[in-house]
Design a protein that fits this description.
It is a single chain. By secondary structure, this protein is mostly helical. The chain has a single domain, classed as Ferritin. The protein has five helices and two strands. A two-stranded parallel ribbon has the order 1-2. Helix 1 packs antiparallel against helix 2. The longest helix has 31 residues. The two termini are 33 Å apart. Belongs to the Dps family. It comes from Pseudoalteromonas lipolytica. This is DNA starvation/stationary phase protection protein Dps. InterPro entries: DPS_DNA-bd, DPS_DNA-bd_CS, Ferritin-like, Ferritin-like_SF, Ferritin_DPS_dom. Pfam families: Ferritin.
């Protein structure tokens, strides 16, 4: 994590202990990085998806892009509320990422959505793990991430509807 993202103010939300605030900020920072990455990945797919069902997928992704951008903003503001410094510069995001970059450029709907399903697997799994940790640290942040996970899981369901067979199997 870059130095500027670990700064803590001299205050936190009333009633939250300093260590709980620091731990919460660290968890929220990783969720913010993941959502910034997801936001950019969704837009990349939107621009580069081709083939049958192109327009349906193209139009499905924009509301997801907007919602994920709003989630990112909500997390950044919570970090600031807790006394942290949300850092969203490109270099700092790359430095704090723990996963590989999305690798598909221009590609077919099925290829992109199969890869996007895997992206959602990681983001949603990590959101769920964050909820478990935040339950003991900060119930407000826990509730915020829980609400986001509900939307993210629905977005993944939308993606899976395009790559699911009639017997319920996912391609890829």
């Amino acid at each position: 994590m870059s130095n500027s993202s670990s700064k803590i103010a001299e205050f936190t939300a009333p009633g939250v202990k300093d260590q709980a605030a620091a731990d919460t900020i660290a968890i929220l920072d990783q969720r913010m990085v993941a959502l910034i990455d997801l936001h950019l990945t969704l837009k990349h797919i939107h621009w580069n998806v081709v083939g049958p069902n192109f327009i349906g997928v193209h139009e499905m992704l924009d509301p997801q892009v907007s919602a994920v951008q709003e989630m990112t903003d909500t997390i950044a503001e919570r970090i600031a509320t807790m006394g942290g410094v949300p850092v969203g510069t490109p270099q700092s995001i790359v430095e704090r990422r723990t996963w590989q970059d999305y690798s598909i450029g221009k590609g077919l709907v099925t290829d992109h959505l199969t890869a996007l399903d895997k992206v959602y697997n990681g983001v949603n799994k990590d959101h769920r793990a964050a909820i478990e940790k935040l339950g003991e640290l900060d119930p407000v942040s826990e509730d915020m991430i829980t609400g986001q996970l509900a939307d993210l899981e629905q977005f993944q369901w939308f993606v899976r509807a395009h790559i699911e067979s009639s017997t319920g199997e996912l391609k890829g």
